[in-house]
Amino acid sequence: xxxxxxxxxxxxxxxxxxxxxxxxxxxSLIFGLMRIPNLAHGAFFMLGTYFGxxxxxxxxxxxxxxxxxxxxxxxxGIALERFILRKLSGNExxxxxxxxxxxxxxxxxxxxxxxxxxxxLAAPQSLRRPLLFAGFAFPTYRLVVLGIALVAAVGLYLxxxxxxxxxxxxxxxxxxxxxxxxxxxxxxxxxxxxxxGATLAGIGGVLGGPILTAYPGLDADMLPLALIVVILGxxxxxxxxxxxxxxxxxxxxxxxxxxxxxAYFVLFFPMVLVLVFLPQGLFGRVQI
Amino acid sequence: xxxxxxxxxxxxxxxxxxxxxxxxxxxxxxxxxxVLIYAxxxxxxxxxxxxxxxxxxxxxxxxxxxGYTCILLTITGYDQLTAALLxxxxxxxxxxxxxxxxxxAPGLGFIMITLAxxxxxxxxxxxxxxxTGGDNGIRLPARPMPFGIDIRDAASFYYxxxxxxxxxxxxxxxxxxxxxxxSLMGTRDQPRRMRMLGHNVWLIRLLTFVMAGFWGSVASILxxxxxxxxxxxxxxxQQSAEILxxxxxxxxxxxxxPIVGAVIITLVKNVASTYVERWNTLLGMIFVxxxxxxxxxxxxxxxHLWRRLQDRRKKSTPAKITxxxxxx
Amino acid sequence: MTAPALEVxxxxxxxxxxxxxxxxxxxxxxxxxxLIIGPNGAGKTTMFNLVTGDLNADSGSVKLFGQELLGMPxxxxxxxxxxxxxQILTLFPRETLVHNVVLAxxxxxxxxxNPWTALTGHRHVYDAAHEALAMVxxxxxxxxxxxxxxxxxxxxxxxxxxxxxxPKLLMLDEPLAxxxxxxxxxxxxxxxxIPRDVTIVMIExxxxxxxxxxxxxxxLHYGEVIVEGTRAEVVADPRTREVYLGD
Lengths: 288, 328, 247
Description:
The complex is a heterotrimer. Chain A contains eleven helices and two strands. By secondary structure, chain A is mainly α. Chain B is an all-alpha fold. Chain B starts with a helix and ends in a 14-residue tail after the last helix. By secondary structure, chain C is of the alpha/beta class. Chain C has two domains: 1-81 and 167-247, P-loop containing nucleotide triphosphate hydrolases (Rossmann fold, 3-Layer(aba) Sandwich), CATH 3.40.50.300; 90-166, no CATH class. Chain C has nine helices and ten strands. In chain C, a hairpin with a 2-residue loop joins β1 (4-15) and β2 (18-29). In chain C, α3 packs across α4 and α3 packs parallel to α5. Chain C starts with a strand and ends with a helix. Chain B binds chain C through residues 174-175, 177-183, 186, 189-190, 192-201, 207, 211, 320, 322-324, and chain C through 52-54, 73-75, 78-79, 83-84, 86, 90-96, 99, 102-104, 106-108, 111-120, 122, 145, 148, 161, 165.
């Protein structure tokens, strides 16, 4: 019984960490490259969950729904970058505040369209039955979510380290002026990274649906977690987002399971320690 | 002071004093109290934003720390004055801690950290059921009786709030013209140069952060006295954003700006929530529009326009754009 | 007077892999006028930034009248008597000239922490500020906004802010850059009037003015000190000619 509790909680933590990675890897890349925290990122995640819900309602299968939901949010991300953020280029403070305004609009529209009732998303039929192994029952869907997050992590790693696009992003994160100077099309890069980040957040939202359910306030629950991941891991670092996501996943999940009253204290202390002793985060390239 | 400002000041004083006499309707008198409380919040965040160039998204944290402390101490049996003073003291100490953490990162990292800390305070209020009553919130048993004066009805509470507001405004006005205020504005414009002139930029910012926390805590106590109730909803990101927007909308580089912003946002919010449910969309849209098209805010924008009109009348040289208006 | 005002020893700074200063060492005696020259990218401004604390050195030592500066925050170094001007103007553009100087004066007074009294009520600060402006010939322009002044006036304002602090060591980063012939003359005369108890270290490209002003010259090249000596010695040295005088 005890064993079962620890194993299940550990699994829940890593699955949640996987979702956080989908959310915060994009957040971190956008921050690293454009130097702005995209405060609409939590709203992107929530919108993904709601998109997923509606697509499933329309009879779509889970995986196409996840992909479509992600693309839908990605297109919205492009719109935000092209039509609003670009108009404010150079005014980074204004850009951040605008993303906050947009997040309020998105959250309120979600409330209008999908009402205030929580809406659970159904996991794919084949993954609903627990996996029995060595006398323990494992929630299959969460294992799959973890798997997808790991695949996404490897994919992003290869993208960043092995492709031309990744090289350009890394150059931009390290030194934007230099990148501009050597002729990297910086503005197209911004759009691409925004598309990538928003799509990942959207897919994360759909995948998170069966675990978290769609509800108003999901955005405000997820955004601070993404912030803490980036503060812990360091901005602009994929490895930082990866490690940070699982650390936060564990702290948050075990915090809620063991001492629900103190769950946020448990998150707070590592953040304070990192801020005091390692202001660039564990793996940061950029001073946040 | 110029004669115009003295006249404006007298008119404002008369109007503020007469509010409960002009509008007898309790609903509107209460709204006026709300405006004053929010104006104090906006003025306090503006110490950082307007004078220091620091954008905080965690200002509602003081509402949590000061508000809950005040209510809990009162429930525990402390008298109202002690509870309020201890709450403000504790919340101001918290501001110092909050400031040390936030100032670890310059610029946009600062926004992120203040947001994260604000949300953590919210999360603690939400989760710590035993202490805060969680989602249901907790009540303050009754409004206090400062020096034996009854402030339970709308008009007396309005006057009580007005007294606190005017005292705060006087302090903030003195501050805005003081040497420390000038140093703070220097760190906003040229932090590196200020260091080279012998100023301790970090300490200037931290002290400002603490001062903003102090006045934010005072406003929080008023907020709790007004509502007699506090729940996590009052200290969410939306609250911090509203307060920040008031300062930006009105114009951050003066004392009048945040007050004007607080009046507009509080009225729009009350009107909007009476007729439509979509306050958040409206809030978001005001945010986007103000930042994209009116980055300096309403008060400096109007001043600029006024000067241009006057210049045209005089048919003199084109208006000089001087942003160094003495803050007033 | 033989105590060194500024002792720089083994100063190193790297950006990424590139050394910006390599083992830079030199002494400047109290009251001396020292010129630092070298081609663009020689590490002159970097060296200034290391002395003032705008940049952190990797290793080495910088002593001001025997006191170690490295590891000390910039503002504390200023309180020990260090002042500098910038090559790229870093003024408070929307403020009046006198307000710029007042900020410089406040930097060294405890008055700067006062949150209560009106700044404009402290006449003595303004008197001192006007005095400093008068010293550089800007008395008439005290109430003008920096944005409305000419480049030459701003250069002189930079100087006024530094002089107002009555420093012991004044570091001037290209005080003549971008000035007209007449303005150069004005600034030059100004520099001559600075009393001898102020030690001056100056980076300057205008060789005519600089050479006649300085007593000793240090030549930097690729972050290293390659020649140091009196005017005549440095000008005569073949290494100077090679890297700097261009033949």
